[in-house]
Amino acid sequence: MGAIMTVKTYIESLGVYLPAKRLSTQEIVDGCVNKPRIDLESQTGIKSRAVAGEGEYCTEIAIQAMAKCFQISRRKPHEIDLLVSCNISRYCGPEFKFTAEPSAAARLASTFSIHPNAITFDVSNACAGMFSGVLVADALLQSGAARRALVVSGEYLTHITETAQKELEEGISPQLASLTVGDAGAAVIMETTEDETVGFSDIDLFSSAKYCDLCVGTNSDKPHGGYVMYTESQTLLPNLIMISSEHIASRIKKNGIDVRDYQHFITHQIASKYVKGVGQMLNMHLGANTIAPEKVIDNTECRGNTASTSHFVALWDYILNGTIKSFDKILFGVQASGIVSGFASYAIDDLPARIRQVVDRNN
User: Which CATH superfamily is domain 199-362 in?
Assistant: First the structure.
């Protein structure tokens, strides 16, 4: 009998869109009716973030990310037979327009002339949305139900910042976390390969649903309207760090992963202290300095929390600054309210070189 060929899923292309408009944490705080008692910038490490411009909503942001993804890809839109849209935000137009049907995936597929028989659907799983889409796409690609998948998210989040500025309560307000978000779009094209040196070796997600009420999005009950997010950060974040680090450590041990072979660790980009905290807690489980500080990717200073896109925005940023290179290996830690925790181990191909080549050419 011949050897059984291992088929792995890999990211063929990545595109990220960051709106040109920027807003500093100090500007956000200055715009609050009630100023936070804490120094938000020093506590989070977030100095600024990209903010959607006039006429930019979640759909427009997703379209821009997909356009960049196709610029870098070797594939054309008609070759995509699975499209998964994963954004939290469904704010799709002025006057608080919220769109549920038709699905965002169907609308995006139509915009780009994706294969007419493509499978299209939306996935919603808080800040773990894109990795949930990646997990589903991986299963469908591995089964042969799809040949090429595009997973996309367009996050227009800063509208909750504007609402929080009007409603922020004195003291430790449950809307404080709304002041830390930023807007971004990300898209990845995925397909399978028989090259065992690249792609995902492990993707895993699970939920601890008893914490589901610690971060809730809903409509404002105030006359000005809008959307709000209530977050019990003092309870949520320690539990996120604890549950996630235990889960990641267990997957690393179970799979016999030698962390020394991996150059980078990308966790959910919530705030600088949080990113460092996950790395430190992992070292408690795995051994001192297993996840060395220089391996931990942190782009929160200039991005804020971009929700479901955060891992891929961080990947993009650190490819462009030359830190993440072709054929590097990356460990991903996935976290979201719910609580959702996840892990992925990934070996990148020549994508960083291709991204830098296209970006340099366009500049």
Answer: Thiolase/Chalcone synthase (3.40.47.10)
